[in-house]
Amino acid sequence: MSLQTEPKQRTVTPFRYDIVGSFLRPSTLKDARLKYQNGEITTEQLNEVENAEIVKLVQKQKEVGLQAVTDGEFRRSWWHLDFFWGLDGVERTIIEEGYRFNGATSRPETARLSGKISYSSHPFVAHYAFLKEAAGEDVVARQSIPAAAQFLFELDRADNKESTQAIYPNRQELLSDIVGAYKASILAFYEAGCRSIQIDDCTWGALCDQQFITVMEQIGVNVKEYANELAKLNEDVVSGLPEDLVVTTHVCRGNYVSTFAGVGGGYEPIAQTLLSIDNYSGFYLEFDTERAGDFKPLRFLKDNQQVVLGLFSSKFGELENKEDILKRIEEATQYVDLDRICLSPQCGFASTEEGNHLTEKQQWRKLSFIKEIAEELWK
């Protein structure tokens, strides 16, 4: 079977060759952040460095041929916590132990409630406005935020459960306030000119991980009911948004200093629940290792949705074997038509400011490699 097909140009995200969002932080930016933490430079001086590096990054993304660009999450320390901290009623908290990964543990920080959740403003909106201006009119400026499900997941963790329940003894009120704050923030991005939102979500990677499922069941959590609650929360957030706002989601399986989380497991246990969420135009799914299982779960994908196959690892710099990639794409076409497939790395290159273990040169070469394969497939 030949995978080559007549080109069907995509004018909205996701594009045939795409990214998840974050990029390795350049040394200039890392040095500035360290100086800021040590009180050696002001907030304004840090912003100047961030602005300059984001402008360079946008240009580099254009040079490598990307049609959707991001600010690389250069103003963030985490892919998710910085967004949570910007919501009303949420505070940054130091805890005893960070997130556990395979052979590594992250910095011990979390987002904990200090009051009722709401939205009044968010620093990310101004950050997006800068990206939009830097991007110009020839590419899509895309904003990424962590999922509402991820926020609930954080508030439910053992370190935070007591404070969450103290402020929200009524679970439904908690869910309602999360939806309200999220909708308001997304509409603020829209007013700033955003027409492409990517919602990042690690919860689904956890809910198909056999180790995590076992632990949840041991503490009395009905995993299926919890998955349904998370799906409904995400769906409520993205329902009723402006029709010209493209909303996609990325499912992550752990991406910290080139490590992963859990023992893994295919998407089958959660596929129908996840892929049934309305108003997502595309799903960025990790398929770079056997930990993600086969492509059979893609049979639940809706006819109007794209799947972005994360067949390329952002965790290492070596390029994948092209023939192996083409073979895997052909396997995926047993369940979803090639025209509804796009390609990207399995995750960002730096979900936290530490970044994965590869060089910037390798990062850009990998994106060029993805473009090369995409152009070969859809020529």
From TrEMBL:
Alphabetical list of Pfam families matching this protein: Meth_synt_2
**CDD domains annotated for this entry?**
CIMS_C_terminal_like (cd03311)
Q: Which residues form a coiled coil?
A: none
SUPFAM superfamilies under this entry?
UROD/MetE-like
Note the InterPro entries from the entry: Met_Synth_C/arc, UROD/MetE-like_sf
Tell me which domain of life the UniProt entry assigns to the organism this sequence originates from: Bacteria
Q: Which residues form the Cobalamin-independent methionine synthase MetE C-terminal/archaeal domain?
A: 170-353
Q: What is this protein called?
A: Methionine synthase II (Cobalamin-independent)
